Structure formats: C-alpha cells, structure tokens
Amino acid sequence: MPRLSKFAAMAAAALTLTACATTDDLADVPEPMGRFLLGHSVTVVEQPEIGPFSREATDEAWEEAINFAMEERFGRYDGDKYFHIATKVDGYALAMVGIPLVFTPKSVLVASVTVWDDEKGTKINEDPEIFSVSEELSVEQLIGTGLTKTADEQMLSLSRALAKRVHQWMLENPEWFGDASLMDPATTSAGKPAPTAGTIPPQFARVKDGELEGGEEVGGTSTGVQSEVEGSGSTQTTVGETMVESSS
Description:
single chain; 248 residues; alpha+beta; Rossmann fold; two-stranded antiparallel sheet; signal; Lipoprotein
C-alpha cells in the first residue's frame, strides 16, 4: 500500500476510536506489569507523512511531547528490570481552524513502537507495533481543537493517547516483563499516580498567536535521543535509528 494511502487509512481508523482516547487513569495506581521499570523513552521523527489541513510541527517538538507522555505514564512503575520504549512517528495531522458543525479537521498520530529488554539488549517485539490515535476525548473535539488548542497542546494530547494505547498493548503481554514475585519485597509496589495527571505542563500551554503557534520553538530536545541507554548492569544499548525501526 502506498505510503500516503496507508497513512490515510490509519488516520481514518484512529478517528473511529476517539471515544477510547481518554487518559484520566494517570491519577490512578497503574495495573501491575511484572518487573517493569522504564529505562528510556526514545522517539525518532524522520520525514513523517503530514495529513491534509494540518499544522506543521518540528521533529524536536514531537520528540519532546512523546517522550514526556511515555515517561509520565510508564514512569509510575517501580520494578527492578529495565525496559526501553522506542517510537517512530510515521505520520500526523494537527487540526487547523475549521468551520464548526460544517468542517472540523481532526488531529491524528500514527506511530510504530518497539519495546526493548535492557538486560538482553534485544527487541521484545520483532516487528514494530503500529498505532493510530486521535486526541483525548473532550467537548473541544466537537468544534475542532484547531480553535481551542495550540499545536503543542494537540501534540501532547495525541502523545498521551498514544502512550495509553501502548500501555494497553503491553498489559496484554505480561510474559514480557517477568514474574513480580521474583523482585525484592522493597520494590514490589505496582506503582504510583503520575504527578502531572490532569495538568498541562507549561511547555505545552503556549499562546495561540505569534511565533509559538506551530510549536516551532518548543524548548529543548528529548533527553537521550542522541545518547546511550545505560542498563541496570553493564549493558549499554545504542539509542537512535538502530533502536527504532520504521514500518514499510
């Protein structure tokens, strides 16, 4: 399937799942997930497909938003075995201003995800898992978030929806993360609520008008993207394109 039509199909599928895209569970203690402890979240953005009627955003802005959302969700776990989450942005659309009730562009994100076992230095899922998500469910979607949110806020909403979908997928595969009964009793807690639950961090709540409108000047780049992943022992895994595989 050609790249454009593949993205269009995935974007359409994402819009049918809007009702599932809520992330209000961040304030809860997460479901147990074996010995899982987040090592690094790594995001790569390389010439993603940009949908029609979309604002544009920098690669760095996407890296920052996705890594923040992954760390916010998976950082709640306190196991004793490191795992890394690698994400590649395949395509997106950030809704522009439309005409309420007549034409309301929607925001979608398509991304490929691979989970890595730090101790073994290998991928857990051989082929990247592809996810397509829309923004978190809200009244704003009825009139179009192009009118109510900045590009930064749209990216954060999509990134949180992606992180939740990835979380659900990982919970469906508990064998990946080991037996929690093998952990030291001091680290057997399922986890803790996310400290940022229900909030929009300052870097994603920019003014609509002016130079920050498209997310062009999102401060900083994602941590660890150009560095190395330090394992729980002496193992190191190179971070970058070698960790993130694109879908064909």
